[in-house]
Amino acid sequence: MIQVEHKWIKEIPVLHIYDAAHATEKLPTVFFYHGFQSQKELYLPYAYLLAQRGMRVILPDAPMHGERSGNESETEQAIYFWDTVRGNIDELPLLRDALDAEGLIDTARLGVGGFSMGAITSYGMLAQYDWLKVGVCLAGSSYYGHFAKALADGVMKQGVEFPFDVDARIRELAPYDLSAAPTKLKNRPLMIWHGKADDVVPFQYSEKLYEALVEEDMSDNVAFMVDEKAKHKISIEGMLAGVGFLEEKL
């Protein structure tokens, strides 16, 4: 029986999903992240499928989202988008260490994944933490600097003023920018999925990363899946492929 447990880990609300038959075992574990202005509960289908295949799954709420949202407006969420992404990345070791202390995870078999903002988060985690074994990035961008500038320009065109120096904030993203140093992937398995008609996160970011990995002779463990018609929405085929990839590689 698949169990869904709500818990708080270091003040981070998460859903913890696992097969009850293996509740106290050290299992391969996936940390899966939701998209912008979404929340952890909407990604339970991924977690259920992964738990069926013997994995432990942690679905956190990102800062300013889900149970961690306050009275922020949509504009404020947009202004602090990259703070949210960085918050996710910086919190991952806290989640890992807490679960390890409970004896619940196999620390040699940890993976990350996500959709949209969650995929952007996952790219940054792969750039930061070499103890992650595998990643699945669905409709995201590893090009932090370029995408951050494009998003900021779009917000400013709407007449919104940022309460900080945008260029300085973008420079702070450099350590998380996998595109700037693709060798940080270190031949770890990575699945990239993207719809060509994506009107939120441009498909070209995924295409460009894959081409960079090919150029660096680092594409042997990379699966690049292109949906010719999809916009900014994961297809059933993409979801199942991501689950299968994590099952195989983790």
TrEMBL record:
Domain called Peptidase S9 prolyl oligopeptidase catalytic: residue spans: 48-235
Keyword Hydrolase attached: yes
Alphabetical GO biological process terms: proteolysis
UniProt keyword list: Hydrolase
Stored InterPro entries: AB_hydrolase_fold, FrsA_esterase, Peptidase_S9_cat
SUPFAM superfamilies: alpha/beta-Hydrolases
Molecular function GO labels: carboxylic ester hydrolase activity; serine-type peptidase activity
Entry protein name: Esterase
Gene name, Swiss-Prot/TrEMBL: yjfP
